[in-house]
Amino acid sequence: MDMRATDLIKDNSCPRTRATECSCSTIKTVTESLDTVIAQCDLQHSDTVKGTILFIQAPGTPTLIKGTVSGLEPGDHGFHIHEFGDMSKGCESMGAHYNPDNVDHGNEDSGHVGDLGNIIADENGNCVQSIKDKYLQLRGYRYNIIGRSVVIHKEMDDLGRGGLDSTGKIIDKKPG
To answer: What pTM does this model have?
Structure first.
């Protein structure tokens, strides 16, 4: 039996994620469950970009992130989990990238929990993505992303390397 994110929802707002519905009281139940946990994010805060992102985690495994997105400009787009699920003022109310360990910005291998690198839209603006992430969780408390927001940025993410040049290519300003 799969446990879905909708099974976790309560009718009050969450002090941890600022989501309108709090899931904190049931995190322990999910953590101890032997079921696969599936959370779904429907992209909806744009007139043009649409899609669905699934997060799937079985006990003791990395989280699988699978998604289909349309309406993007062709090319790379930063893909992140932000601190809060509050979309009332766009990125401003969603907070920063989710970073419970206060580490430097980077990619899914060497950044913080909310860093998922870039996704790539084809010439038609479509992206089908599959990522295995060893940090973000649908179980437990510290790295749990349930109730937070998923953001696909208009621009490429520089992966913490220092910026983009005028052509949109990453400028590597970090030594090494």
So the answer is: 0.76
Angle, alpha carbons 85-90-93 (nearest 5°): 55
User: Which of 26, 135, 156 minimizes the C-alpha distance to 78?
Assistant: 156
Could you give the CA distance from residue 96 to residue 82 in angstroms, rounded to a whole number?
5
pLDDT at 162: 63
Length of the chain: 176
In order, the DSSP letters of the chain are: --EEGGGG--SS--TTT--SS--GGGHHHHHH--SPEEEEEEE-S-SS-EEEEEEEE-TTSPEEEEEEEESPPSEEEEEEEES----TTTHHHH-SB--TT------TTTS-TTEEEEEEE-TTS-EEEEEEESS-BSSSSTTB-TTSEEEE-SSPP-TTSS-B-TTSPBP--S--
**Range picked from 15-19, 33-37, 50-54, 162-166 for highest mean pLDDT:** 50-54
